[in-house]
Structure formats: C-alpha cells, structure tokens
Amino acid sequence: MFIQTEATPNPATLKFIPGRVVVDGSPVEFSSREAAGRSPLAEKLFDVPGVTGVFYGSDFITVTKANGEWQQLKPAILGAIMEHYMSGAPLLADGTAQGDADLDDEDEFFDEADAETVDMIKDLIETRVRPAVANDGGDITFRGFKDGIVYLNMKGACSGCPSSTATLQHGIQNLLKHFVPDVVEVRPM
C-alpha cells in the first residue's frame, strides 16, 4: 500500500492520501481524543505524540499536530494508517456516521424569510467553495445567516490555519457578496 502525503496551507496539518475512499458521505472530524473513540484509526493516530486533530475527507486523511517535526511524526502516522487499512477494521464504530458533527451544540440558524438567500449561499458553498477547500485537506460548512452575516464552520486543515481568515474574507466573502447581494460579511464559528 502506498500512501501519498501533501502539504496543506496550514503548516500544522498534513494531508495523507491512501489511494482509496476514506469516507463515503459527509467528512468526519475528530478534534479530541474523546471523540476519537468512535474510530479505531483516529484512536491510533491520537496515540502518536503531538497529534491534536484528525479529519477524514472523501479520499484523504488530514492530521494536525501541536508540536514536533513532521519528519519525526510522519513515519508513525503512515504506519498507523497502513496498519489500519491492512487489518480490514472499519473506519468508524458501528452506527457512527459522524465524528464531532454529532457533538455540535447548534443546528443551522436563519430567518425563514431568508430561505431563498440561504439556498443560494449553500449552493455556492457546495459547488464552488467546498471542492477547493477539500483540495487543501479541509471542509467548510454553512452554520447560519443573520443580518447579512454568513456564519461558517471550518474543519480539517482549515481549522486553525493562519491563512483561513484571508480565505474567508478575501475569497469566500467576495464570492458570496458578488453572487448574493444580501451578504455583507462572512464570519467563522
């Protein structure tokens, strides 16, 4: 089994590409050891000293570190991923569809009068933003819209990335403002 690695815009996060489907459906994020209990692979990755986050995309895994050099961490991470796939163990525990998504305190929020605007925002995020963000090892989801402000949740490599603020304000905000006149600002949650 050959696992490719790619740098992401976030220097604390590295993208691992195992050459097969990782999750079929919604991306899954584990931002703590406690949440990792839902996934045997995430548990193994959190056993690597310095690992602080694990994110599963459709065909990639991103791992975030607090400290240490990638040169030191990479062999242990690659070993854990390879061992997991060779074992045939499931990626997620039975009945578990999501990681931290199950732990979200809030659902989407917006005024029903803004439903058409929200549909346009969601469509743009789904078709233009999420594919680009996935290429960088992350994900972005709509959380709400109120008083012209779009609230988004950034996951994976995007969470805590030094360039995520610029991406939000210059890339995503400009895109949404161009196509949806009611949008005045974009904020992370």
Mean pLDDT value: 87
Strand content: 15-25%
User: Largest sheet at a glance?
Assistant: 5 strands, antiparallel
Number of domains: 2
CATH topology of the largest domain: Ribosomal Protein S8, Chain: A, domain 1
Number of strands: 9
Estimate percent helicity.
Answer: 25-40%
Distance between the termini: 38 Å
- CATH superfamily membership of the largest domain: Scaffold protein Nfu/NifU, N-terminal domain
Structural overview:
The chain has 189 residues and is α+β, with helices and mostly antiparallel strands. It has two domains: 4-101, 2-Layer Sandwich (Ribosomal Protein S8, Chain: A, domain 1), CATH 3.30.1370.70; 104-188, GMP Synthetase, Chain A, domain 3 (2-Layer Sandwich), CATH 3.30.300.130. Helix content is 35%, strand content 24%. It is built from five helices and nine strands. α4 packs across α5. The model is unreliable at 98-105 (pLDDT under 50).
